[in-house]
């Protein structure tokens, strides 16, 4: 499953960069493809450069392009059954930024803290 997902990610990245003609797609990066256990469905995670409006527009454009993408995947990978594509926004970067923000809010700035192990 992992190998099929990796192959699909590579093909999708190429298709998005070179073959999708919808200008609404914008700056999209295919970050991961997760296959269902029966290989009937592929969840395609994409990251979008831009603000919230750009994310919404790019996601909608990618979903409109899904039938074309699925057809091209079938041709290029020659799978017995081409999985249905489910396009999702990759939240990994936003989640890591939020974790970093929370951690930095709870930690004192370096150099400002008093050391407990120093002898006065």
Task: Please give a structural write-up.
The protein has about 120 residues and is an alpha+beta fold. It has one domain (about 1-105): GMP Synthetase, Chain A, domain 3, CATH 3.30.300. It has helices at about 1-20, 50-75, 90-105, and strands spanning about 30-35, 40-50, 85-90. The protein has a three-stranded mixed β-sheet with strand order 1-2-3. The radius of gyration is 20 Å and the shape is globular. The chain starts with a helix and ends in a 14-residue tail after the last helix. The relative contact order is 0.16. The model has no long low-confidence stretch (mean pLDDT about 85).
- The amount of helix comes to 40-55%
* Main beta-sheet annotation: 3 strands, mixed
Alpha-carbon Rg, integer = 20 Å
CATH class term: Alpha Beta
Mean pLDDT: 85
Order of helices and strands: HEEHEH
Structural class from helices and strands?
alpha+beta
What's the arrangement of strands in the largest beta sheet? Answer: 1-2-3
